[in-house]
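Final report, Chapter 2: Outcomes

The project's central promise was a pipeline that accepts a single protein chain and returns its three-dimensional structure in a standardized token representation, suitable for archiving and comparison. That pipeline is now operational. To close this chapter, we reproduce one record exactly as it appears in the project archive, with the input sequence first and the structure output second.
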Amino acid sequence: EPLLRQREEVARLYRQRQACRSALEALGRDSAERERRMDLLVYQLEEIQKAKLTPGEEEELLQQEKLLSHAEKLQSLVEGAYSEIFAGSGLGPALLDRLSGALSALQEAAAIDPGLQQAVGLVESAVTQLQEAAYDLRDYRDRVSFDSGELAAVQERLSQIRSLKRKYGSTVEEVIAFARQVGEDLERLRNSAAEAEKLEKELAGLEEELSGAARRLQQLRLEAAARLSAAVRESLDQLSLPQAQFEIRLKEREQVAPQGVDRVEFMFSANLGEPVQPLAKVISGGEMSRVMLAIKVILAQQDRVPTLIFDEIDAGIGGVVIQSVAERLAHLSRHHQVICVTHNPQIAAMAEGHFMIYKEEREGRTVTRIKALEDQERKQELARMLDGGSADPISLRHGESLLERAERFKKNL
């Protein structure tokens, strides 16, 4: 998308310009301020360098701390497993001895019936693997030991790393990157005069680049605004607002921001002959629901988001209008998952699935529940929504007709 790429380019140039300005301002301070700044940077750099951090070190230390903290338990568990395999217990012989006995019996049986050779092979493999597991457990048992001094050293190192992270970054890698940046800042301060001249030229170039990029972004926005305005007007016509006017206007900022030089404003008029005004000032609740639906439908066609959620999209509207909204949502659901939170039976009837949210008391507390409705339950719920609480035969028939009408509409999509 050219517009998004251009916006990213403006943001990138803006960040570069701000960094250049900040560097130039730092160089422009008086010598005493510069010396104080250098002292701080030297302190920060030395503190980090003395720690001799390495990427991934903290993760390794955390694993060591975990192992050392549980060394005695690990040793006990592994020793128990090893003993069961090799030495057995008071309840019987060792597991390896029992398995070896089984192997001997099978080998003797296989000499009589060769059909048992596959079983012999499997048990032989099990004996070998069990022996290897026992050797591994023995080595692990001998290797693992509780060393309070080593644990204290690991915890002290972790404390040092956490202290540095609180000051200089959220990860070890960020702290290392901070030290690298501090070193560059120190070098820049030590060569401030030449650096200032270089930065001034760089800043002038960046200002020119940023201005040009912002103008190109503005032009792309004007073109996109015209397309989006026309698409929204067309969509509003399908949502029973045939006389509505919708425009997107760009107001220019005094200075370029990371988003460009423009402020975007939506303008709206619901009736023919009325001038468009800022949408937030003149739009009603029902009109806002339809405008937001129109915009979401259009944007969803561009970015292909998998799921769209509408909360109370039916607010302030009803009758024929709500039916047009329901049909628009059905169109949208052909390419997206659409979830609606609604109290309106026409919108609920158009859905493929209907879930009822309700509250109940349980053990002295109020809890919220959600239930997927089956066919008959759905008809009853639509009847309740239509009649405000009850589900008499007339309401049930009306609910069924809503479902039938919705199914006919969806079949023709």
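Archive annotation: The chain has a mean pLDDT of 85.
This record, like all others produced under the grant, will remain available to the consortium after the project formally closes.
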